């Protein structure tokens, strides 16, 4: 009887001496986690797909800033699928093999690191728009944005092979039992990861948004103090639009910081990274990909309008791409 109970608690009962043990969570807790993660996965995929279709379909939305949001939504879209692997790990067992384990980490690393870089580019775009508005159209063009976005994705692909080099040579070498999925970064790989995808990006985002906040506050005060004229009214309207956009992008940056810091705090306390479906830091990190389109829905009228046209299938009509949804 005791042997049967012991085997029931193993990931691979036929590997009695070498199998990992299940997490042993109460059924109610496992069900709650399953419903939470499943809902988060579905909503993340669906909402980011709306962002992707909106910007890709409607020509008026294909501005340099929105192209950055498109790339961010693209990475967030795939993060929604990555949450599925956390659902599979609710019981604490990995059944897909060592190669798939490393493959998951590679895909996860490329997508999430690209997301971090997109937030940095968005903060730069916001900084130029608010602090150097007269030079914005010259400095920020669609061509430069496309080159920058491509460079970020290429950089993420290159870094993943530096960080994962030891794990690629022998997948599963750091597993202590069957049913575990662990990758370990050496000192150099960990340093690259922390510098390029945590300390560096966070520093840039904080510095730029603080500067944007200071300039935005001064401009808002100036607009309230100046009397309106016919010409001045148009100018104020434009400035208000810029400030509203900066506020929205600032919320994206704030959400990024809140969701990123707990995750990287774990990596600063130890080099070993492990699948933990119950880890608050992991869930919060993935939740950022759901939070971004929710911010767009609350503060971008164009997203609400375009989402309505997509859901009602109005985008299938000829010439729908020319509709002004701004």
Explain this structure:
It is found in: Cell membrane. This is G-protein coupled receptors family 1 profile domain-containing protein. GO terms for molecular function: trace-amine receptor activity. It comes from Oryzias javanicus. It is a multi-pass membrane protein. This protein has 326 residues and is an all-alpha fold. The chain has a single domain, classed as Rhopdopsin 7-helix transmembrane proteins. Helix content is 73%, strand content 2%. The protein has 11 helices and 2 strands; from the N terminus they run αααααααβααβαα. The chain has helices spanning 2-8, 27-57, 64-88, 97-131, 136-139, 142-163, 165-169, 187-225, 230-269, 280-299, 301-311; strands at 182-184, 272-274. Strands 1-2 form a two-stranded antiparallel ribbon. It is globular. Residues 228-238 and 271-278 have low confidence and may be disordered.
Compact overview of the structure:
This protein has eleven helices and two strands. The chain is mainly alpha-helical and 326 residues long.
Give the helices and strands, then pairings.
Elements: H1 2-8, H2 27-57, H3 64-88, H4 97-131, H5 136-139, H6 142-163, H7 165-169, E1 182-184, H8 187-225, H9 230-269, E2 272-274, H10 280-299, H11 301-311
Antiparallel strand pairs: 1-2
The low-confidence parts are 228-238, 271-278
In DSSP terms (H or I, runs of 4 or more residues), the helix count works out at: 11
Sketch the topology as an H/E string, one letter per element: HHHHHHHEHHEHH
Question: What percentage of amino acids are in beta strands?
Answer: under 5%
Tally of strands? 2
- CA radius of gyration is 23 Å
The largest sheet, given as strand count, sense and whether it forms a barrel, is: 2 strands, antiparallel
**Which fold name is given in CATH as the topology?**
Rhopdopsin 7-helix transmembrane proteins
Q: Averaging pLDDT over every residue, what do you get?
A: 81
CATH superfamily: Rhodopsin 7-helix transmembrane proteins
Name the structural class.
mainly alpha
């Amino acid at each position: 009887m005791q042997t049967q109970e012991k085997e029931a608690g193993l990931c691979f009962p036929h590997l009695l001496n070498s199998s990992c043990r299940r997490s042993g969570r109460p059924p109610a807790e496992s069900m709650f986690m399953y419903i939470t993660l499943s809902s988060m996965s579905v909503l993340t995929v669906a909402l980011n797909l709306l962002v992707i279709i909106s910007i890709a379909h409607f020509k008026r939305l294909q501005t340099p800033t929105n192209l950055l949001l498109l790339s961010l939504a693209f990475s967030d879209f795939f993060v929604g699928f990555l949450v599925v692997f956390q659902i599979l790990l609710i019981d604490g067992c990995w059944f897909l093999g060592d190669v798939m384990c490393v493959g998951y980490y590679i895909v996860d690393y490329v997508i999430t690191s690209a997301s971090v870089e997109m937030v940095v580019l968005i903060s730069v775009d916001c900084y130029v728009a608010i602090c150097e508005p007269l030079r914005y159209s010259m400095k920020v063009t669609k061509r430069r944005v496309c080159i920058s976005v491509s460079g970020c994705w290429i950089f993420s692909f290159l870094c993943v092979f530096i960080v994962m080099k030891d794990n690629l040579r022998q997948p599963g070498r750091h597993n202590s039992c069957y049913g575990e999925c662990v990758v370990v970064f050496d000192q150099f790989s960990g340093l690259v990861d922390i510098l390029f995808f945590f300390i560096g990006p966070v520093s840039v985002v904080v510095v730029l948004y603080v500067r944007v906040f200071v300039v935005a506050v001064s401009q808002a005060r100036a607009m309230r103090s100046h009397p309106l004229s016919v010409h001045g009214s148009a100018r104020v309207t434009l400035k208000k639009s810029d400030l509203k956009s900066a506020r929205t992008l600032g919320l994206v940056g704030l959400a990024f910081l809140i969701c990123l810091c707990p995750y990287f705090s774990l990596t600063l306390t130890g080099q070993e990274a492990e699948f933990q479906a119950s880890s608050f830091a992991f869930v919060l990190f993935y939740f950022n990909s759901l939070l971004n389109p929710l911010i767009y829905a609350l503060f971008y009228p164009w997203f609400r309008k375009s989402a309505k046209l997509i859901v009602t299938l109005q985008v299938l009509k000829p010439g729908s791409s020319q509709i002004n949804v701004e």
